[in-house]
Amino acid sequence: MSAGLRAGFIGLGDMGGAIVTRLLAAGLPVTLWARRPESLQQFESGRFHAATSPAELGRRSDVVGICVFADADVRQVVFGPDGVLAGLSAGSVLLIHSTVSVATCGEIAAQAARVGVAVIDAPVTGARARALAGDLVVLLGGEDAAIEKARPVLAAFAGTTAHLGPLGSGQRMKALNNALGNATGRLASMAVEVGVRLGLDTEWVTEILRTGSAASAPMNSMVERLMRDPEFAGLAARMIVKDTALFREMCADAGVEAGVLGELAGERAEHIVPVLGGPAGAHTR
């Protein structure tokens, strides 16, 4: 661990909260800011400093991670007189863990460069359980020197750090990864529905499909979490809509055909869990 390196973090939801748990366990000095103060209650009091604004968080941090929902949310906490960028000092590093557009990353990097702050796009993949185990995969785009400065923070929660190229490369990889995951999840949901219509026992269908030769992370996630937690399934559907739009946008910008991958990924938002009863062709959101 680099002596004296201070970490700041914004975005304390399902993934962000797990990342912060790892930062605290690593013994890093951590400053947090939350739009909803109750989000801080998941952490032991006295283990972190609660900033009154993103700008204060920036002043107290050398490396800041942002893990909020979408582009507009990232811009809101970065820009403005009370934004993170207003508090960060030259030589600091801003990690964008949110899954957002390459354009947003570029816009932030351009403004950050004026005050000597480096920006890395660093979306993560691996789900909450792997975050808590310190085994996330972090997809990095940016300069080597900035990544090396942030390395002690990344090491607290990452099992793999993949430096994929210049700024924006991490977001492109994350969009592709999510598209495949969501397309696979759509097929998994279809398979469960077909199995039930064939007269097979639902529990055995889901158990075999998630442990046999057709096993996949999306299938396991669907059975273990999405089918059991409607609130989380609703949030996941919103994320799928956002992430599929980003994937299609990135493909269009590069002149690449999104094809069936994009179609199936987009369909999953309307079929987040399989329908186990009702008329054929019915679906849930």
Distance between the termini: 44 Å
User: What is the CATH topology of the largest domain?
Assistant: Rossmann fold
CATH superfamily of the largest domain: NAD(P)-binding Rossmann-like Domain
What is the general shape?
Answer: globular
- Summing up helix and strand content along with how strands pair, one would put the structural category as alpha/beta
Please name the CATH architecture of the largest domain: 3-Layer(aba) Sandwich
Report the count of strand segments: 9
The SSE order reads EHEEHEHHEHEEHEHEHHHHH
Instruction: Please state the oligomeric state of the protein chains shown.
Output: single chain
Q: Uncertain spans, ≥5 residues at pLDDT below 50?
A: 278-285
Q: How many structural domains are formed by the residues?
A: 2
Taking all Cα atoms into account, the compactness measure Rg is 20 Å
- Amount of beta strand: 5-15%
- Main sheet makeup: 6 strands, parallel
Name the average pLDDT.
Answer: 94
The level-1 CATH class of the largest domain:
Alpha Beta
Strand order of the largest sheet: 3-2-1-4-5-6
Helix content: 40-55%
User: What is the count of DSSP helices, taking H or I runs of 4+ residues?
Assistant: 12
List keywords for this structure.
6-stranded parallel sheet, 9 strands, single chain, alpha/beta, 2 domains, 12 helices, Rossmann fold, 285 residues, N-(1-d-carboxylethyl)-l-norvaline Dehydrogenase, domain 2
